[in-house]
């Protein structure tokens, strides 16, 4: 039905009145339609145990790039982790990593790209993550601080400066710079929320732990791992399997010189079921780092 606009005094009022009356008439002979109520979001159903993987994938898994990452995806699908903390996610922006992570069943992705760095960190997850902070200033490769949605479970994923003895060539400050990165990252995350007890702190720290070596066996700078322990964390592998000492054996290959860690606070450690490095045919070939794996009960 069309309305003709009448060009005379009061014409516009007449047209408006017709529209109102037509609306009333048009609805009078059919049932009133109520708006649909807002649908409640589906509750998040978490598993009984949370499987967490931390993995430096060697410059964006460059060794499997010619194969379209098919081997990497197949390995991920077989392991089936719930949360993955990645380091050296070279070449992946948000959309590209979302596409790759979807192939192993992770629809939630947080990246942390830095304009001055080609070695970013990232998180992927089966379950919703709340991004709480991206640490990018005054650090080499940055950090991501996130929380598993609707829980008190916090995760920090980071990657510290790689050079052993220098920050700028010849200055001898590599260890000092990593300790600076550790303190800055803790200041931006864990130390900022002292009332939140459940944390894991994972990644490639490019540092050693004094508990991985026998006394007198070798000497490294342990400042970074000592500092995180002073803040109340403990490495999950040491917690479950003991610190290295005479006569201690492990039921997995133990990398005494490892630089990748799974640190956690006491409440998380008490619910930790598994914690160990992964050595298999895939990891032996596709990265120069063994991934670190842990399982935490959510019951």
Automatic annotation (TrEMBL):
Keyword Membrane (UniProt): yes
Endonuclease/exonuclease/phosphatase domain segment(s): 53-289
Keyword hit for Transmembrane helix: yes
Entry keyword set: Endonuclease, Hydrolase, Membrane, Nuclease, Transmembrane, Transmembrane helix
Lineage: superkingdom: Bacteria
SUPFAM superfamilies hit by this protein: DNase I-like
Xref: Pfam families: Exo_endo_phos (PF03372)
Gene3D superfamilies: Endonuclease/exonuclease/phosphatase
Annotated signal peptide: none
GO MF annotation terms: endonuclease activity
Transmembrane segments annotated in the record for this chain: 12-28
InterPro entries with a match to the protein in the record: Endo/exonu/phosph_ase_sf, Endo/exonuclease/phosphatase, GPI-anchor_lipid_remodeler
Name this protein carries in UniProt: Endonuclease/exonuclease/phosphatase family protein
Origin species: Sphingobacterium chuzhouense
């Amino acid at each position: 039905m069309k309305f003709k606009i009448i060009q005379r005094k009061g014409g516009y009022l007449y047209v408006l009145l017709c529209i109102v009356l037509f609306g009333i008439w048009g609805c009078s002979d059919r049932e009133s339609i109520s708006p649909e109520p807002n649908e409640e979001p589906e509750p998040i159903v978490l598993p009984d145990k949370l499987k967490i993987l931390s993995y430096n994938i060697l410059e964006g898994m460059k060794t499997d790039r010619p194969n379209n990452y098919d081997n990497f995806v197949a390995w991920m699908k077989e392991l089936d982790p719930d949360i993955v903390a990645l380091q050296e996610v070279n070449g992946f922006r948000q959309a590209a990593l979302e596409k790759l992570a979807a192939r192993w069943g992770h629809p939630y992705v947080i990246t942390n790209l830095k304009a001055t760095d080609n070695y970013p960190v990232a998180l992927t997850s089966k379950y919703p993550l709340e991004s709480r902070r991206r640490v990018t200033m005054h650090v080499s490769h940055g950090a991501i601080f996130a929380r598993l949605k609707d829980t008190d479970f916090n995760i920090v994923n980071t990657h510290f400066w790689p050079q052993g003895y220098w920050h700028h060539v010849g200055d001898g400050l590599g260890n000092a710079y990593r300790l600076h990165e550790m303190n800055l990252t803790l200041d931006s995350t864990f130390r900022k929320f002292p009332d939140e007890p459940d944390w894991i702190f994972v990644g490639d720290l490019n540092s050693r732990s004094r508990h991985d070596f026998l006394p007198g066996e070798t000497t490294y700078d342990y400042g970074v791992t000592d500092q995180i322990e002073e803040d109340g964390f403990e490495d999950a592998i040491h917690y479950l399997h003991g610190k290295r000492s005479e006569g201690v054996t492990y039921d997995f290959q133990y990398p005494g010189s490892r630089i990748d860690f799974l640190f956690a606070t006491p409440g998380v450690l008490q619910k930790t079921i598994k914690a160990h490095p992964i050595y298999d045919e895939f990891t032996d070939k596709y990265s120069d780092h063994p991934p670190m794996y842990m399982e935490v009960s959510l019951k």
